[in-house]
Design brief:
- This protein has helices spanning 16-26, 48-57, 75-81, 96-105, 151-160, 178-183, 193-196, 201-212, and strands spanning 3-6, 31-37, 44-45, 62-67, 85-89, 109-114, 132-136, 166-170, 188-191.
- It is an alpha/beta fold.
- The chain has one domain: Aldolase class I (TIM Barrel, Alpha-Beta Barrel).
- Strands 1-9-8-7-6-5-4-2-3 form a 9-stranded mixed β-sheet.
- Strand 7, helix 5 (151-160) and strand 8 form a beta-alpha-beta unit.
- Helix 1 (16-26) packs across helix 8 and helix 2 (48-57) runs parallel beside helix 3.
- The longest helix is centred in the last third of the chain and has 12 residues, at 201-212.
- The termini are close together.
- 44% of the residues are buried.
Amino acid sequence: MIKIAPSILAADPLNLERDVRKAEKAGCDWIHVDVMDAHFVPNLAYSPDVVRRLKEVTSLPLDVHLMMDHPEKLTDVFLEAGADSLTIHAEADADVNALLERIREKERLPGIAIRPHTPLEKALPYLEKAGLVLAMTVEPGFGGQKLEPEVVDKIRAIRDSGYQGYIEADGGIREDNIRMLVENGLTVAVMGTALFHAEDMAASIRWLHTVSRGE
């Protein structure tokens, strides 16, 4: 069964605690936290303090995604704040291998992410050290975008490479396309508006888990 990770980018920023508690009660598996530096992507969110406070209000793993030019500046800070998994971009201007090793040394899950139009070959050198590969299915930075279908081939290629870690996707995942993603190798679905704007989040999560079991 795949893991469902609601992205707080789609939550009410004035009521994050309420929405995170709602997501946990609804049966989700992880909480996804996007961190944006307004350089690597044209948006700004969230600080280590947000991760630290979220750690106080939920028992769910915090899946933190650093969309930053220089993730090495805040890797340790986010780990200390309570990130259970920490994902950095293959395109980042950093020693990516060293950062993945650092995350694993701290006994957290290291992840590597790639943008939709970045060739998969950019991430291949890091797969041995990564416990999670995040294939962005939209250009990172803003929620509510449509999934770029060509990324499905990338997800399938990651699976077919023999990679044994989590295969995660983020962006435009909805009830009408998640079955296709799961069939091609998806194991973690990051979903924002499709969950936080759903009429019944718990019912949506139950359905998503059922689909992932092939039912």
